[in-house]
């Protein structure tokens, strides 16, 4: 790695980790370019040499805070014997962590980041390769996929090939589960429902299981 790239990586990490600290101490909605710059010890203009907009800073910081989920999802999925079981278990893990950290998961999987969000994920793991340690190779493509719809579809297609679900229902089942999760998470964040986070998690999984049962 050349000196210029090393310097860019170092600065990138300074700003990302400063953003993580603000999120942990004040909340994700309190992140501003000026606050990040002040905490990192630089001026606001310097940040724009490395990040196009504040949403990218929030995204990268949120990825740092996603580590607990990425480490646990493989443990969950390894309990499954069939593609459908793995699909259900992956949703259980996803719901558990997303409703525990709704703002973080919204920033990664729902928030508008502009063009090519997958490129941002690749950049993140380039800067933090240690976050991929102990993650099975079969899960790495999932972690590089921000599009939630694509993340779950491959398991459903495998389940259809094994006759666990109707092949013609793969797309609709996948879309319904995604929309269900997105709707619940968005409503919780916008205070449109008076569920606790635990109730939201339980209800989402209950409805996902009902959708899957109807497709079997």
TrEMBL record:
UniProt xrefs under SUPFAM superfamilies: Homeodomain-like
Database matches in InterPro entries: Homeodomain-like_sf, HTH_TetR
Species lineage: Bacteria, Bacillati, Bacillota, Bacilli, Bacillales
Pfam families from the UniProt entry: TetR_N
Q: Does the keyword DNA-binding apply?
A: yes
Domain HTH tetR-type span(s) in chain numbering: 9-69
The Swiss-Prot or TrEMBL record marks DNA binding at: 32-51
Keywords from UniProt, A to Z, are: DNA-binding
| Native source species | Sporosarcina highlanderae
* Record's protein name: TetR/AcrR family transcriptional regulator
């Amino acid at each position: 790695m050349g000196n210029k790239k090393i310097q860019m990586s170092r600065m990138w990490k300074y700003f990302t980790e400063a953003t993580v600290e603000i999120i942990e101490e004040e909340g994700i909605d309190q992140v501003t370019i000026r606050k990040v710059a002040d905490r990192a010890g630089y001026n606001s203009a310097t940040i724009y040499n490395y990040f196009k907009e504040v949403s990218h800073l929030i995204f990268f910081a949120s990825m740092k805070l996603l580590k607990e989920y990425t480490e646990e999802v493989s443990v969950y999925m390894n309990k499954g014997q069939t593609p459908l079981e793995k699909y259900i278990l992956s949703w259980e893990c996803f719901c558990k962590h997303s409703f525990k950290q709704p703002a973080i998961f919204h920033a990664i999987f729902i928030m508008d980041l502009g063009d090519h969000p997958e490129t941002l994920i690749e950049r993140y793991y380039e800067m933090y390769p240690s976050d991929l340690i102990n993650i099975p190779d079969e899960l790495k493509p999932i972690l590089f996929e921000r599009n939630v719809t694509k993340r779950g579809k491959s398991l459903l297609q495998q389940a259809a090939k094994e006759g666990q679900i109707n092949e013609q229902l793969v797309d609709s089942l996948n879309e319904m589960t995604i929309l269900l999760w997105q709707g619940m998470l968005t409503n919780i964040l916008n205070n449109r429902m008076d569920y606790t986070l635990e109730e939201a998690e339980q209800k989402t999984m209950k409805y996902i299981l009902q959708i899957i049962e109807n497709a079997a």
